[in-house]
């Protein structure tokens, strides 16, 4: 991956911290995924400052999740279940708040696409 110009690198680091913060919120809030934000944060840190990327990857649970994703090892089966259930719950609970039928249909389609992506495209990590 090419290194971005020097003036842009601090912006990548700032974005990495913002994404890391959202990821930590995802660890605390039920139904809000955290892993995707950490994966994005690691990518931002890699463009901004590899030392921050190394810091993120050295975190006990987070680093393993990001490393597994990057290596193509996928997600544990339990995590896939949790992610799919969270998507279904989020769509189901928010659907009545969308006043337009087109918006509701679009929201359901996005939820179905998200679940199908997790089920079919992300490999299931087997227990070691």
TrEMBL record:
Q: Please indicate if the UniProt record lists Transmembrane as a keyword.
A: yes
InterPro entries documented for this protein: DUF454
Membrane-spanning segments: 12-45, 101-120
Q: Which organism is it from?
A: Deinococcus oregonensis
Q: Which Pfam families match?
A: DUF454
Q: Which UniProt keywords apply?
A: Membrane, Transmembrane, Transmembrane helix
The identity of this protein, by name, is YbaN family protein
């Amino acid at each position: 991956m090419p290194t971005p110009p020097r003036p842009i690198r601090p912006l990548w680091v700032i974005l990495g911290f913002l994404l890391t913060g959202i990821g930590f919120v995802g660890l605390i809030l039920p139904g809000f995924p955290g892993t995707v934000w950490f994966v994005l944060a690691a990518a931002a840190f890699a463009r901004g400052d590899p030392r921050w990327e190394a810091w993120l990857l050295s975190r006990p649970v987070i680093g393993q999740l990001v490393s597994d994703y990057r290596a193509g090892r996928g997600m544990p089966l339990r995590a896939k279940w949790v992610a799919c259930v969270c998507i279904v719950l989020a769509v189901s609970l928010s659907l009545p708040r969308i006043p337009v039928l087109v918006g509701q249909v679009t929201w359901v389609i996005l939820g179905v696409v998200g679940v199908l992506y997790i089920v079919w495209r992300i490999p299931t990590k087997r227990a070691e």
